[in-house]
Design a protein that fits this description.
The complex is a heterodimer. Chain A is an alpha/beta fold. Chain A has helices spanning 36-52, 67-76, 94-108, 128-135, 190-198, 244-262, and strands spanning 2-7, 9-11, 17-19, 24-26, 32-34, 55-61, 80-84, 113-117, 140-150, 154-161, 164-171, 174-178, 203-204, 224-229, 238-240. Chain A has a single domain, classed as 3-Layer(aba) Sandwich (Rossmann fold), CATH 3.40.50.620. The mean pLDDT of chain B is 92. In chain B, helix 5 (145-159) crosses helix 6. Chain B has three domains: 5-59, Alpha-Beta Plaits; 69-258, HUPs (Rossmann fold); 282-398, Rossmann fold (3-Layer(aba) Sandwich). Chain B contains eleven helices and 22 strands. Helix content of chain B is 25%, strand content 25%. Classes of the chains: A alpha/beta, B alpha/beta. Chains A and B meet through strand 4, helix 3, helix 4, strand 9 and strand 10 of A and helix 1, helix 5, helix 6, strand 11 and strand 13 of B.
Chain lengths: 264, 401
């Protein structure tokens, strides 16, 4: 079985601010990590490999620095990593990103299951996983919280819904996006770290993927960001001090209208 | 391949582009030198091109798609139904969609997929739809990614909507990503603000990024439909008016489009939830300060009295005090209720990301320096085990229960 895990390198914190004087994102000194949801996808890939045998390939599109994210995944136990990095990919939205990843997965070929995190912590779109699925004309199971069974032809997985969960059966190959509940990612082993250091990570460019130039980067991205701004800061409100027996009725009174209004 | 953006010899070294770049991708090593664009950081947003007074920055023009944008009419809303019941997010979309349709001078249409849901079309008309596209087939009784997406792709290709809105729910997000790709549409996730640009008539889609610390406004100027998923509880529901008239168009769909490779074997509703927190108007959430799983019973008691859903911080979920489906925050759910009562939650940035757009935030915590108080509308410093039962009691009295 060949498992392909798509990962994204993101800033460690979402606590990024806009410098009010220059209107630029202040990202200096912010450490890059693997998107937290992608960690669960990597871990699940490794667990499935332990069960069925096979290989786990990690794939990332990003700047050359994203090489570090791939090495971290190899340190956790992934067999190999592939970086997609090209100036031609700049300005990609989720349409172009999912196309580029899909083209790379096609080139890898012979895959059985594609795993992604449910969304990235910087963009929060949750659109790339399903986008890859549809570019490859594959079925998808999103928001997966548990894989019930897998064999060389079929997977059965639980999808987390707002009001419960669904059990979905899909033929392979198939695309999965996973939520945090699915597992607890392992730490890299010493052996893994050694492997990560030595790993040769190929960098594929647009030409390697036989991409249609109209479908990548800015050209392939229907959406564009026209403005970024800081949301109005939430003001801290009223601190209520005193004996609980005094302030609790006051608090209840303040909330009364909102609670009655919310009942509708 | 040549660079998609560059600073030409017209540059007078004023440095305006350095200031204009939202991504810190342009640097000027010293005065009187041409700034340098770091193409790894550049997203080709065009801010610098607009800021340059000397027309010195050249950016590759995106070739227009060659499609006739004027052929795309009407504002569409995907009507999400569970077991034949139209979900409230749909009414919010109809409320917002009405405004967009009016400012574009177009019709508001709802798209309803299901089995035996014909009677529900009137509900959509009463909430403002001028037209309902209805696909009523036993195969569409419940949501399945492939068949639902196939049907929507077919309808979009046939009727060419200008704007297509869908709820940013599990279903909505899974579904429309599969639709946007084959119809070559721009799709913006999780919007909290929508407006029509008065000049270009483009849809301006505003959404939070970086866990709500940054807002971004996004356009899809050269493609149609302009697709967005919209966050639940942000837009106001359309009012009901049974006197409204509208048209119902029963659409026929080829059988082959209803076939799915992936199949739902069963649906297991969660029994534990009082109210689904994505739907809840009030949420009572507990964190590390609750200390044990049993103590969550106190939160449930309060939630029952005021009709609230029960939420939790990551710490509480990781301690197995409550199921993951209740987790609010970056690795859980983003919620936007009218009232959010945070009990024993310190307010880590990851938690705030999931709840800071709530209308009213109440914080109860023993640590006066807890960051949760910085976003709280009302804060009480004290022992939650004393305060919670008092509060429950007080609400009971107040609501006559």
């Amino acid at each position: 079985m060949r498992y392909v895990v798509c990962i994204k390198q993101v800033p460690e914190t979402t606590d990024v601010k806009i410098n009010p004087e220059t209107n630029t994102l202040m990202r200096d000194g912010v450490v890059s990590i693997i998107n937290p949801f992608d960690m669960y996808a990597i871990e699940e890939g490794l667990r499935l490999k332990a069960k069925t045998g096979g290989t786990v390939t990690v794939l990332s599109m990003g700047p050359p620095q994203a090489d570090a994210a791939l090495r971290e995944a190899i340190a956790m136990g992934a067999d190999d990593g592939i970086l997609l990095s090209d100036r031609a990919f700049a300005g990609s939205d989720t349409w172009a990103t999912s196309y580029t990843l899909a083209m790379a997965i096609r080139k890898i070929g012979n895959f059985d299951l594609i795993l992604c995190g449910k969304q990235a912590s910087d963009g929060d779109t949750a659109q790339v996983g399903p986008g890859i699925a549809v570019h490859l004309n594959l079925p998808q199971i999103t928001y997966v919280r548990k894989i019930e069974s897998i064999d060389d032809k079929t997977i059965v997985a639980e999808r987390l819904m707002e009001n419960g969960y669904e059990v979905i059966q899909s033929p392979l190959p198939c695309v999965l996006t996973v939520v945090k509940e699915i597992n607890e990612p392992r730490l890299p082993s010493l052996k893994g770290k050694m492997a990560a250091k030595k790993a040769v990570i190929p960098c594929w460019k647009a030409a390697d993927l036989q991409c249609d130039p109209k479908c990548i980067g800015m050209e392939g991205s229907p959406t564009k960001v026209v403005k970024i701004f800081t949301p109005p800061a939430r003001q801290g409100g009223e601190m209520m001090k005193g004996e609980p027996s005094e302030i609790v009725p006051k608090l209840a009174a303040k909330l009364k209208d909102a609670i009655l209004g919310a009942a509708h | 391949m040549s660079d998609p953006i560059k600073i030409t010899e017209k540059c007078v070294f004023c440095g305006m582009c350095v200031k204009a770049c939202p991504f810190g991708a342009i640097t000027q090593s010293e005065k009187k030198t041409t700034p340098v664009i770091d193409l790894q950081k550049c997203t080709l947003c065009g801010s610098c091109v607009a800021a340059c007074k000397f027309d010195a920055i050249w950016m590759k023009e995106k070739s227009t798609s060659g499609i006739d944008l004027s052929a795309f009419k009407d504002v569409w809303v995907f009507a999400e139904q569970h077991e034949g019941v139209i979900q409230s997010i749909t009414f919010e979309l109809l409320g917002e969609g009405r405004k967009l349709a009016d400012s574009l001078g177009m019709r508001l249409c709802a798209v309803l997929l299901g089995s035996n849901v014909q009677a529900r079309a009137d509900e959509l008309i009463a909430r403002g739809a001028d037209k309902v596209y209805l696909v009523d087939r036993p195969e569409l009784a419940y949501f399945q990614d492939e068949s639902y997406a196939n049907v929507l792709i077919e309808l979009v290709k046939k009727h060419k909507p200008n704007v297509f809105l869908c709820g940013a729910s599990t279903i909505g997000r899974s579904l429309v990503s599969r639709v946007a790709v084959p119809v070559n549409a721009g799709l913006t996730a999780d919007c909290t603000g929508l407006a029509i640009d008065p000049v270009t008539k483009n849809l301006l889609q505003t959404r939070p990024a970086f866990g709500g610390n940054i807002m971004a406004t996004i356009e899809a100027p050269n493609s149609r439909p302009q697709m967005s998923t919209v966050r639940h509880k942000v837009m106001k529901e359309a009012e009901v008016n049974h006197a409204r008239k509208g048209e119902v168009s029963l659409e026929t769909i080829a059988d082959v489009l209803l076939q799915c490779k992936a199949k739902r074997l069963k649906f297991v509703p969660e029994v534990e939830t009082t109210t689904n927190i994505a739907e809840a108007n009030i949420i009572v959430a507990g964190g590390r300060g609750m200390q044990t799983a049993e103590h969550f019973g106190m939160l449930r008691a309060l939630a029952d009295v005021i009709g609230a859903g029960v939420g939790a911080s990551r710490a509480a979920v990781d301690s197995n005090w409550i199921a993951y489906s209740h987790q609010v925050g970056q690795t859980g759910k983003t919620v936007c209720p009218k009232i959010y009562i945070a009990v024993g939650i310190s307010g880590q940035i990851q938690h705030l990301a999931g709840m800071q757009s709530s209308d009213i935030i109440v914080a109860i915590n023993k640590d006066p320096d807890a960051p949760i108080f910085k976003v709280a509308t009302y804060g009480i410093v004290g022992d939650l085990f004393t305060i919670l039962p008092l509060l429950t009691q007080e609400f009971k009295k107040m609501l006559g229960k």
